[in-house]
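My main concern about presentation is that the manuscript never shows what a single data entry looks like. An entry of this sort, consisting of the sequence and the corresponding backbone structure tokens, reads as follows:
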Amino acid sequence: MIDEGRPIFAQIAERIAGDVLDGTLPEEGQVPSTTELSAFYRINPATVAKGMAELVAQGVLYKRRGIGMFVSTGARARLQEQRRAAFVDEYVAPLVREAHRLGLGPDDLARLLAEVSGAGAAAGGPGRAAGGAR
């Protein structure tokens, strides 16, 4: 559940952010307490608090004194914007560079993406033809 190769507080922040993105934690909804999360993951409460502090600094969470942490209004949209930018940097930009090296233009890429998307939807996964192996 916890990846030993990365800081645990960052993983906690990513999991909470993921729950906000997928709607498990709705805007203005209460987030599990530091104590609950530390018991669930069997980690130090200070580690959970550090992950939550990161999300507070990003405007994803806010604290209601004496009540707990809550998801900020607009947090989902902020997280989507951040993830889209990261997606472009990590996946789209390298894809476009490689396509350019291969002599593929925007229309070629659009066609390939449509093919992969259509096959992925039909077979239950990206890049797989219906009924066939990759």
Observations:
- The longest strand covers residues 61-64.
- Helices lie at 8-21, 34-41, 45-57, 75-101, 106-123.
- Confidence is low (pLDDT under 50) at residues 126-134.
- The CA atoms of residues 36 and 45 lie 9 Å apart.
